[in-house]
Amino acid sequence: MEKIFIKAEDVRNDSFKLTKQLIEAGFIPTIIYASMRGGSNVANPMSEYFKYLGIKVRYGTVIVSSYNNVYERNKVVNIEGWAPPLSSIKPNEKIVIAEDMFDTGNTISAIVNKILIKTKVKRDQIRIVVRDYKVYTYNQDETKIKPDFYAVKYIINSPPKKVWTHYNSHELVGLNKEEIIKHYGLDVAKSIELDISKIKKNCDKEKYEKIKLRLLEQGFDV
Predict the structure, then answer these.
(1) How far apart are the first and last CA of the chain?
(2) Which end of the chain, N or C, is more open, meaning fewer C-beta atoms within 10 Å of its C-beta?
(3) pTM above 0.85, yes or no
(4) Taking CA 163 as the corner, what is the angle to CA 157 and CA 166, rounded to the nearest 5 degrees?
């Protein structure tokens, strides 16, 4: 699997550009729902852009997950909560769903379907804005839903060519010590490298063994 490392400032700058495209296309949302966690990286700059223009746009979040780790995706999309709740959404709302990554589209599709079921908002009142958009050309089930605005498109032609986009603003999962040093710096690697003797002293045995094994797997000295 190929890993592409994305700088936080690139996500921020592309999010400003996407907001500009959205406005110039004539779609001014009344609310932005950020898919947590990754969607906040796009939604935050979008929200700031509208504030800068003096346009009032509510900021919302939807807690959702479909990945366990780099290699494993849950078959079921879990939507755990909305803030503000969908019961507060009026029929004339214009909604943006912000996400960092559009992969199979299952997560976004689940969010859109929930909005359509639980509110009186029509499909043409919703726009999907993502920073990274993966398109699979080989035999893979994909939803019919597509992003309305995106910054970067990845064409995936075969399973061995799958790409994992790693956001340097916060992500650690899937990285070994060497990759952390290369892309985050030695200071970050040192801050992650736990004193295993303290863990052994203060944690229960099961947690200690799990942490120790994981650090060893990722190339850390313990």
Answers:
(1) 27
(2) N
(3) no
(4) 160
* Residues, the chain: 222
> What distance in Å separates the CA atoms of residue 158 and residue 97, rounded to the nearest whole number?
29
Compute the distance between CA of residue 173 and CA of residue 155 in angstroms, rounded to an integer.
Answer: 23
Using alpha carbons only, give the angle 36, 38, 43 rounded to the nearest 5 degrees: 85
The predicted pLDDT at position 71 comes to 47
Domains, in order of start, for the chain: 2-167 (3.40.50.2020), 177-217 (no CATH)
Q: Give per-residue pLDDT as tens, 90-99.
A: 999 999 999 9
Per-residue H/E/C for the chain: CEEEEECHHHHHHHHHHHHHHHHHCCCCCCEEEEEECCHHHHHHHHHHHHHHCCCCCEEEEEEEEEECCCCCEEEEEEEEEEECCHHHCCCCCCEEEEEEEECCCHHHHHHHHHHHHHCCCCHHHEEEEEEEEEEECCCCCCCCCCCCEEEEEEEECCHHHCEEEEECCCCCCCCCHHHHHHHCCHHHHHHHCCCHHHHHHHCCHHHHHHHHHHHHHCCCCC
How far apart, in whole angstroms, are the C-alpha atoms of residue 220 and residue 192? 9
What is the distance between the alpha carbons of residues 163 and 174, in angstroms, rounded to a whole number? Answer: 13
